[in-house]
Automatic annotation (TrEMBL):
InterPro entries found in the cross-reference section: CbiG_hydrolase, CbiG_N, CobE/GbiG_C, CobE/GbiG_C_sf, GbiG_N_sf
Any one GO biological process: cobalamin biosynthetic process
Enzyme Commission numbers on file: 3.7.1.12
Species this chain originates from: Haloferax gibbonsii
GO molecular function, one term: cobalt-precorrin-5A acetaldehyde-lyase activity
Protein name: Cobalamin biosynthesis protein CbiG
Biased segments, Low complexity type: 1-21
Lineage, top ranks: Archaea, Methanobacteriati, Methanobacteriota, Stenosarchaea group, Halobacteria
SUPFAM superfamilies: CbiG N-terminal domain-like, CobE/GbiG C-terminal domain-like
Enzyme class: hydrolase
Ranges of residues in domain CobE/GbiG C-terminal: 214-330
Region (Disordered): 1-31
Spans through the membrane: none
Amino acid sequence: MSDADSNTNSNSDADSDSGSGHCSTPDSDGEVADEIAIVSFERKLDTAEEIKRDLADDYDRIDVLTYHGDVFADHWGEYDCFVGLMASGIAMRKTAGLLDDKWEDPAVVVVDEELTWAIPLTGGHHGANQVAHDLSKLGAVPAMTTASEAAGKQGVESKAKALDSHVVNGDSTVATNLAVLNDELGPVARLDGPKAVLVGDDVTVLKRNGDDGVVLGTGSVSGAKKAQFLTAWERALDDADRDFDDVEFVATGTRKADEPGMLDAAEEIGAGVVYFEKETLTEFEGPTPSRSKELIGWPGIAEASAIAGGRDHELVVEKRRYDDAVTVAVGR
């Protein structure tokens, strides 16, 4: 087994063996809300439209719905997340009877009329935390109450998002998120198939989304800027005839953890970051010689990370260096 670390703004362990949503999708991790509805009283429709404008670039669809007694019921299942521009008690009373399954129910967030607080009511790990965080752009303070986020830790659903995967057996996350909270989960194990796996109720199975994504393996000098990462990644993806929408995640070495420019660039393209230990990168060393191996014993991070992270462990684009600051390779 070999260690890696997956990051979506907070650090926690993931693992790679042999190398390392959508609310309406039954077997999705549900972490990503793509289509949201802002429910507002008529007197606050201008504020609702302001929210829509400010979040427009982050979502596939945002609709503003004028509140009436059955508005949630009429549109239940149509959106990934409802944002209630109203008191939390109103939203709670109108949605409580509609809730059935946390893996299929839309998330619900409330924000007060002065945009002071954004409070996930249900579906915190299934889009509500994400939307509440995005509402902070308008000055609202996101009030996260899910245990892992409140403790500054990355829940299983967030790990799945970072790895561009989804949770297959949702009921297991009660046990595994408790283990996260108690620092007992350990690394996520990657199994390269074909294999048959027998698991218990306290084992969460993550399955990668799609079948044709790529991994950006990247290294950098200390302090490289967000714009330098984005330019480097875009050029490498052009060489692979791909774009940012094709990226499953960004991969690098643990020695490059917490590079602000890299984390900001990954957030810009909507990708998680996975950190591989030196042992894993050594196992998947790329073809291009690297001075770092001579100097500090690490193989070239960009190529090894791209190969280790790719589902087929295949290098698509060999290491490129841009602006003497960022190296990048593309794997799948």
